[in-house]
Amino acid sequence: MAKLPVLTDGPFKELHPAMTMPEALREANRCLYCYDAPCTRACPTHIDVPAFIKKIASGNLVGSARVIFESNILGGSCARVCPVEALCEGACVHNSLQHSPIEIGRLQRVATDHVMERDIQLFEAGKATGKKVAIIGGGPAGLGCAAELAILGYSVTVFDDRAQPGGLNTYAMAQYKINTDFAIAEAKLLEQLGVHFKQNTHVGKDVPLAELEKDFDAIFIGVGLGATQKLGIPGEDLPGVVDALTFIEELKTKKPADVKVGKRVLVIGAGNTAIDAVTQAKRLGAERSAIVYRKGEDDMPAYDYEYEIGKSMGCDFYFHASPVRIEGNGKAEKLVCKNAQTGAELTLECDMVIKAIGQAKRAEFLKGFPQVALDDKGRVVVNAEFQTSNPKYFAGGDCVNGGKEAVDAVAGGKAAARGIHKKLNGAAANSKVA
Ligand SMILES: Cc1cc2nc3c(=O)[nH]c(=O)nc-3n(C[C@H](O)[C@H](O)[C@H](O)COP(=O)(O)OP(=O)(O)OC[C@H]3O[C@@H](n4cnc5c(N)ncnc54)[C@H](O)[C@@H]3O)c2cc1C
Ligand code: SF4
C-alpha cells in the first residue's frame, strides 16, 4: 500500500497523529506487562496487549502486528477510532498509580501501519472446505466475520449496499480520527484472503434473500443500524434541517470545500455522533456551532473526552433545552426550545439544524428474514454462538448490540464466524485469527 492515506494538515488533520519509532520505544518500555492484563480484558476483541507491546519494545513490529491481527483483523482502524479511554487505556494499571496510561491505541497503530505500508501479508486463505457463506453488510461486523471464515477455508461473499466497503468506518467516523481512504483500503485487504465483495448490492432489492438461501450454506447478518430517528416536531422538514449521518457522510465522501455548512449550526442531541457533528461543522467553517440537549450536562451520553473535544473547539452547549419547533420563512431560521424543568422558552437563531438523536433499528428490514427473532427493541436475538433463531442465520455488530463501537462489531462478527464453523464443520474454530 506504500504510504497510508493520512490527513496531516487542514481542519481535519489527525487528532492523534502517528508516533515516531523513538516515541513508540519509549512508550512501550513504560508498559508493566501485567499478568492477566486488565487492558486485554477490557478490549472487546481481547488483543494480547502486553504481548504486542513487548514485541514493539524489542523492535519486532511484524510480530507485534501479527498478535494484533490474530485477535482483530481491523486492528488498524480500531487503533484510530477505539474510545480507548473507556476501554483498554481506561483499564491500564498506570491509572491507579496516578500515571498516564500506556498509549495502547497509538502503539497498536505503529505496528499495524508498519505491515500495511509494506504490504506484508500475514494470513492466507485456509484449505477450502467447499462451503459458502454470505455476509450481508460490509461494516466492521461483516468484515470481522468474513476474514475469520476465509482463514478457516470458507468461500465468503460480502454483499454491501454502499459504493465502498467498510460500513460506518468508511462513511461515518470523524475524519480527524480515520481517513475515508484508509478505511476503504483496510477493508479491501480482505481480498487477499479471497473474500469477494459485491458493492452497491442491497440484499432484498438487488439480490433476493431466497437466492442467498439457495446458494449459500450459512448467512451472516451484519447490517448495522438505520437512518437517524425523526424529531417529530413542526418544521423538521424545512430546508436547512439535515440528519447527522447524511451531513457526516457528505464530508467523508467530498472535499471539505464542497460540503454545505451553515454559519450558525445547532446540533440536536448529545451523544458521540452529536459531538462529531458539532465539531466537524466548526471545522468546516461554521461561526457558531452548538449542541442543544434536553437534559443536563451530567446526563450527556457522549464520552467525557468527546465532550472535552467539543469544548476545546469552542462549541457551545445548551442544556435542559428540549426542542419544540423549528421556524423559518422557507428555511430553518430559529429553533424554539422549552426548559423541561422551568417551562421557560428559549429561541435560538440558526441557519442549519443537524439532528443527532440516534439511529433507528432496521426492524422492518430484519422482519423479512424468515424465523429470525427480534427483541422488543428491534435487535436481532442471538445465542452464545451468535446464531439466530433460524439456524442458517447468524448475526453480529450494531444490529445485535443496538449500537456500540467498531471493536464490538468486529468481536461480534468473529464470534459468529466461529459459530458458523461449528455448525458447518462441527468443529470449534482454531484459526490463526482466533
Ligand atoms: C457518526 C458515528 C460516529 C462513530 N464513531 C465511532 C468511533 O469514533 N469509534 C468507534 O469505535 N465507533 C464509532 N461509531 C460506531 C461504529 O461505527 C459502529 O459501532 C460500527 O460501524 C458497527 O458496525 P456494523 O458492521 O455492525 O454496522 P455498519 O458499520 O453500519 O455496517 C453495516 C453495513 O451494512 C450495509 N447494509 C445494510 N443493509 C443492507 C442490505 N440490505 N444489503 C446490503 N448491505 C446492507 C450498510 O450500508 C453498511 O455498509 C460511530 C457511529 C456513528 C454513527
Ligand atoms: S482494539 Fe481498541 S480496545 Fe482493543 S486494545 Fe486495540 S485500541 Fe484498545
The main sheet orders its strands as 3-2-1-4-13
According to DSSP, the number of beta strands is: 13
The secondary-structure element order is: HHHHHHEHEHHEHEEHEHEHEEEEEHEHH
- Given helix and strand content, the structural type is alpha/beta
Low-confidence stretches: none
Description:
With 434 residues, the chain is of the alpha/beta class. It has 16 helices and 13 strands. It has helices spanning 21-28, 38-42, 49-57, 61-71, 75-81, 104-117, 140-151, 168-171, 180-188, 209-215, 244-253, 272-283, 304-312, 363-366, 398-401, 406-425; strands spanning 132-136, 155-159, 196-198, 218-221, 241-243, 264-268, 288-292, 316-318, 322-327, 334-338, 345-349, 352-355, 393-395. The protein has a 5-stranded parallel β-sheet with strand order 3-2-1-4-13, with helices on both faces. A 5-stranded parallel β-sheet has the order 5-12-6-7-8. Strand 1 (132-136), helix 7 and strand 2 (155-159) form a beta-alpha-beta unit. Helix 3 (49-57) packs across helix 6 and helix 5 runs antiparallel to helix 6. The longest helix has 20 residues, at 406-425. The protein is globular. It starts with 20 loop residues before the first helix and ends in a 9-residue tail after the last helix. 47% of the residues are buried. The mean pLDDT is 94. The site of iron/sulfur cluster (SF4) has 15 residues, from helix 5 and helix 6.
